[in-house]
Design a protein that fits this description.
Number of helices: 13
CATH architecture of the largest domain: 2-Layer Sandwich
CATH topology of the largest domain: Creatine Kinase, Chain A, domain 2
Radius of gyration: 22 Å
Distance between the termini: 66 Å
Length: 453
């Protein structure tokens, strides 16, 4: 970051701080929720009263991180939540009298240093790496989820299908209220519609810089659940809650800019993909198996990454196919600035700070290492035999959480991207999850084996 950029950032923060102090007075704000995430991307936080706000903005607020997943060892449980005033918004679903607002926080150690286990800090470090290479990272996402009657069953609300605009789509009013609430909170929405599976929804967020988008994903998931609860139903981002239908993904659209210019576009190349874009894709394909533990972090994530559905299984790329890991969306003439790469593996239950970091880091590694772009996949990659895919150098994504752990454990890229503390915390948690899953006797086993064994 140049000195001019640093001065601009300080000025923006000071202006945002003054905006916060004025807004709480104008809107009768009594409580401010200080938000952050644990290593798994679960929203955490605590509330302060408006009387504590100025001190919080000046010095942050201490809290005990000892019981936050992935945060603190036994000898370093004291943490500081330092609010980011640029993320201040009112919570529209809370009362207007004695209103409630929120701010995302950067987690610090008591001596004021950034805490290495904070996922927001991990993303900031990787965005700085991109900035040091001359790039600004922009991201948009397609986020899918399901509505069910309650959180005790998978009883669906409708039998509607993709883009249906009929009375069968009972989620339309819920989507409408969700979109309006998001936009009240400063999160721009590009599309909303019913997805392929029954009771499945999609709301797509308009592109923003990587940090803003990660904060927006956390806000999105909170709003979706709050609106659903308000209407007496349940929303879930579980990757694969229903058998026999598509699961819920979070397709990441990534672009890099140099100043005002899209670094992924080149008018001279056959696909209008610059060398930078080609190397970025090469990095994604090379490192995809290693970063899958981050983009698909749950046992249930791998029930979505199976044959017969739209989720990718292999590290291939194409311009149009939905079967491939990386897709190059088309753009209209005159909109070359929208050239981007769509990474289709992540599900909507991942930690967005770590997932965006992983995708960006893999792509930047491809640029730095001059990783060549393999040939475009012009046939259905699923129909190739294992031997044919191997001959073409097409790697497969992990099929289970255990395989993903094995691929990640030896990954230099992932360790560098996350930092030692976050990497070890995340890996330890995933190993425990897999061990818990292995010990559990599942309903499938009871139905299959109990009657005959």
């Amino acid at each position: 970051m140049t000195s001019e950029q640093s001065k601009a950032t300080v000025a923006e923060t000071r202006e945002a701080r003054e905006f916060v102090l004025h807004t709480v007075k104008d809107h009768d704000v009594k409580f401010i929720r200080l938000w952050f995430t644990d290593i798994l991307g679960r929203l955490k936080g605590f509330a302060i009263t408006v009387e504590e706000l100025k001190e919080a903005l000046d010095r942050g607020k201490p809290f005990d991180g000892g019981t936050i997943e992935g945060f603190a060892r036994s000898d370093e449980s004291d943490m500081i939540a330092m609010p980011d005033p640029t993320t201040f918004t009112l919570l529209p679903w809370r009362p207007r009298q004695n209103a409630v607002a929120k701010m995302f926080c950067d987690v610090q150690t008591p001596d004021g240093e950034a805490f290495a286990g904070d996922p927001r800090h991990v993303l900031k470090r990787n965005l700085k790496r991109a900035a040091d290479m001359g790039f600004t990272s922009y991201v948009s996402v397609e986020l899918e989820f399901f509505y069910f009657k309650d959180n005790q069953s998978t009883q669906i609300l409708d039998q509607a299908g993709y883009f249906d605009q009929t009375s069968a789509d009972l989620g339309s009013d819920l989507r409408r209220e969700t979109v309006l609430t998001l936009e009240q909170m400063g999160v721009p929405v590009e599309y909303s519609h019913h997805e392929v599976s029954p009771s499945q929804q999609e709301i797509d967020l308009r592109y923003a810089d990587g940090l803003t988008m990660a904060d927006s994903v956390m806000t999105y998931r909170t709003v979706v659940k709050e609106i659903a609860t308000k209407q007496g139903v349940y929303a879930t981002f579980m990757p694969k809650p229903l058998n026999g239908v598509n699961g819920s993904g979070m397709h990441i659209h990534q672009s890099l800019f140099r100043g005002e210019n899209n670094a992924f576009y080149d008018r001279q190349t056959p696909h209008h993909l610059s060398v930078t874009a080609q190397r970025f894709i090469g990095g994604l394909l090379r490192y995809a198996p290693e970063i899958t533990l981050v983009t698909n972090q749950w046992v249930n994530s791998y029930k979505r990454l199976v044959p017969g559905y739209e989720a990718p299984l292999h590290a291939s790329w194409a311009r149009r196919s939905k079967a491939d890991l990386v897709r190059i969306p088309g753009f209209r003439s005159g909109r070359e600035d929208s050239t981007r790469i769509e990474y289709r593996a992540p599900d909507s239950a991942c930690n967005p700070y770590l997932a965006f970091s992983a995708v960006l880091s893999a792509g930047l590694e491809g640029i730095e290492q001059d990783v060549a772009l393999p040939p475009e996949m012009v046939q259905d990659v699923h129909k190739l035999t294992d031997a044919e895919r191997k001959a073409q150098g097409i790697a497969s994504l992990p099929r289970t959480l255990a395989e993903a752990i094995d691929a990640a454990e030896g990954s230099t890229l992932l360790r560098k991207m996350m930092g030692e503390h976050a990497f070890e915390s995340f890996l330890t948690n995933k190993k425990l999850e897999w061990d818990d899953f292995r010990r559990e006797v599942h309903e499938y086993e009871i139905k299959r084996y109990l009657p005959s064994l």
